Amino acid sequence: MSEQATRTVFTQITPAGRGAVATLACCGSAALTIVDRCLMTVGKKPLKDRPWSTLTYGHWRMATGAGEDLLVVAHDPENVEIHCHGGTATIDLIAGVLSEQGMQRVDLLGFETSRCGSRWQAEANVCLGQASTPRTAQILLHQQSVLPSWINRLRGLISNGELKQAAREIRKTLDWEDYGRHLLEPRSIVFCGQPNVGKSSLINRVAGFERSIVDDTPGTTRDIVSQLAAVDGWPVVLQDTAGLRVGVSDPIESAGIQNARVLIEDADGVVAVFDASRTWSDADQQLSREPAVDLLVFNKNDVSVESDRPAGLPLSALSGEGVSRFLDTLIDRLIPKHPDPDQPLICLASQSGRLRVCCDALSRSDAQRALDELGG
To answer: How far is the C-alpha of 123 from the C-alpha of 113, rounded, in Å?
Structure first.
């Protein structure tokens, strides 16, 4: 394999699996040469003789004589996109030929690193592609410039001997680690309570469709039912749990209750749901005092309400009354503060790890180790 070809890589930039269309992106000094070698265009005019960034229809050459019809876009000599049928057989066929011709298949992060030459810039690009809501996408789009610029600033501080200042900036950024991580990882919100208080109905109301089973029979929800959603633009996973009854004899329901208690301990937010029309019980009182519970909600406020109970948010999962206020309050509890717009944000555990090692090196006045850890 030539030295030129070893610097050329490709990856699938559309989601893995079967689909209507798939896109393979190629970058490197031999990208155009290799794709031109494998492609027979209409009119037999090679890509190098066509205007950049124009869509070209062609036929993928195969040693067997068989091939695939596809569309190709060459943005410049080192960046080419191949758009083909989204079946896995077609993707593997084209990828196999590219590999035979000297291209190296890499994951998306490896591809972005090869394309832009900076690990931090590549990670910012990949994180943007993983955004699941417009709000988080807007933040991550801004981070494409903020994070790499900040890394360059750190390098400058360290090179100039300002090690304490660099360490302070790293610690400040790590203070926002949880905020940055949840730009990609949805916050988990667990709904708990006695059976038939309206947990499933409330989740369906928040999600906007019937994801959870609603039934009057106690113990209907026995397993954890999860639903991805967005609340005020923030990605969340809503988790409906088994009703927290005591004295349950059914082993399946009992296991569901145990799973619910484990989930509550690990959740980012816990909403305890109560039926406002029921008499307040000892079990309700015990649940309302659980340290893990962040918010008390009293469902069915459209019927007669018992007054002997702690403070909480009244709402009706049936009519939607009070749900908007509940969601605003919930987000305020989950995200009590926000960083300045130009605050660098760390979204990946690997980034946090590198910065911690760098900060430790700075505390030992090991500037070279700190620079090495920041990398390219």
So the answer is: 8
Cα(309)–Cα(288) distance, integer angstroms: 9
The pTM of the full predicted model, rounded to 2 decimals, is: 0.83
- The ranges assigned to domains in the chain are 3-116, 119-176+344-374, 187-334
Unique residue bearing structure tokens 């029921």: 278
220, two tokens: 């209907």
Yes or no: domain 3-116 corresponds to CATH 3.40.50.620: no
Which residues does residue 226 pair with via DSSP β-bridges, in sequence order? 239
- Report the alpha-carbon distance of residue 292 to residue 333 in Å, rounded: 13
Ranges of H-type helices in 29-80 = 31-38
For 6, 80, 98, the CA distances from 101, given in Å and listed in that order, are 10, 15, 5
Q: Summarize pLDDT for 255-311 with one digit per residue, the tens.
A: 555 666 677 888 999 999 999 988 898 888 988 988 889 999 999 876 555 567 888
